[in-house]
Structures are given as structure tokens and as C-alpha cells.
Automatic annotation (TrEMBL):
It comes from Desulfosporosinus fructosivorans. This is Uma2 family endonuclease. Residues 15-186 form the Putative restriction endonuclease domain. It comes from the Bacteria. The lineage of its organism: Bacteria, Bacillati, Bacillota, Clostridia, Eubacteriales. InterPro entries: Nuclease_put_TT1808, Restrct_endonuc-II-like, Uma2. PANTHER family: GLR1098 PROTEIN, RESTRICTION ENDONUCLEASE DOMAIN-CONTAINING PROTEIN-RELATED. Keywords: Endonuclease, Hydrolase, Nuclease.
Length: 191
């Protein structure tokens, strides 16, 4: 059973999360359950599909794999018990280069790259809470896509910190830091 409004102030773990209805989408950040936004817009889905397609095609035959939501990312160490995991997110796109992190329930540990596509209701979470969470978890490359103004902010982890992002817009091509020879043309992503 999913948490009631009164229970939302309690602290939960991944063990609790596993008991909630599968038709509801939740994230846990420091044990606090956050209900996912309503169904994504067609524009969100088109952007998601194009970025995923480009990454998946480029990674074919590579040890790195790319996954799209819904896909649980448990931000914890490999030996952490479900009852001790208090950070579970569902990024729009996750690229994982360590096959040991992938199991039947998603990813256990930080993905190498995460892409989040903003909506008005996720703006504060994706640029505040999640930016800090991904940085502290060791996500090497974090993209925040703004569909309305067709821009992308790219954060690169260096010396344990993300620093100032690089901002791209149409007609730019974004170099994927994690994958040396890959660039993603924003004309393709936003059209």
C-alpha cells in the first residue's frame, strides 16, 4: 500500500517501496516518498525517445547500456540491504557502464550518465534536490533538458563536484563527455 498523506512525513526504505502498488510511480529521496508527475506530454516523450535512440544506437555492442524510465535507480552501495536504501529515483534516461550495477530490479549504484527532461512540476526537484543527489552519488554526467525553450544544461562531475553547467541550444551539438566520439544534435532532439 502506498503512503497516505499523513505518512508522507515518515521515513521509508526501498523495502517499503517494493510493497507499494506497481501502477503508482514514486521516488524516495532520503527516505521521503515523492509521487511522480502525471503522464508525460507528447513533447517530453518525443525528446526522451530521440535522446534514448541516439544513445542506444551509439552504444550497440558497447559494455555501457542505456535505460529509460520507468527504471529504478537505487543510489546505494552494492552490499546495502533493501531496508537501508533510502534513495530510489527514476531518471528519464540512465547510462550505466558497470554491468555489475544492473540487476532484475534496475540499477544499484550511480549511473554514469543521467538525463532528466523538465516539466513545470519537476523543475525544482530536478535542478535542486536531484542535482545535489546525483552529484553526491557520483553521477559523472547530468543533463537537464528544457523542452519549452529547447535548451540543455550539462553538468560534468569533476573532483566530486558538478561546478557550473554548460548550456546548449539549437543548433548546437552536445559532446557526450562520457563517450568521446559521440555528439547529440539538438536539431534532431527538438524537431
Amino acid at each position: 500500500m502506498s503512503p497516505t498523506p499523513k505518512e508522507l512525513s515518515a521515513s521509508y526504505s526501498y523495502a517499503d517501496y517494493l510493497t507499494w502498488p506497481e501502477d503508482e510511480r514514486w521516488e524516495l529521496i532520503d527516505g521521503v516518498p515523492l509521487n511522480m508527475t502525471p503522464a508525460p506530454t507528447p513533447k517530453h516523450q518525443e525528446i526522451l525517445g530521440e535522446v534514448f535512440r541516439i544513445l542506444a544506437n551509439w552504444l550497440k555492442g558497447n559494455r555501457c547500456k542505456v535505460y529509460m524510465a520507468p527504471f529504478d535507480v537505487r543510489l546505494a552501495g552494492p552490499e546495502t540491504l533493501d531496508s537501508a536504501i533510502d534513495k530510489v529515483v527514476q531518471p528519464d534516461i540512465s547510462a550505466v557502464c558497470d554491468p555489475q550495477k544492473i540487476d532484475d530490479r534496475g540499477c544499484l549504484g550511480a549511473p554514469d550518465m543521467i538525463v532528466e527532461i523538465l516539466s513545470p512540476s519537476t523543475f525544482k526537484k530536478d535542478l535542486g534536490i536531484k542535482l545535489t543527489l546525483y552529484e553526491s552519488s557520483g553521477v559523472k554526467e547530468y543533463w537537464v533538458v528544457y523542452p519549452l525553450d529547447e535548451t540543455v544544461m550539462v553538468f560534468i562531475l569533476q573532483n566530486g563536484q558538478d561546478g557550473k553547467p554548460t548550456v546548449y541550444s539549437v543548433p548546437d551539438e552536445i559532446p557526450v563527455e562520457l563517450f568521446n566520439d559521440l555528439t547529440i544534435p539538438l536539431e534532431s532532439v527538438f524537431r
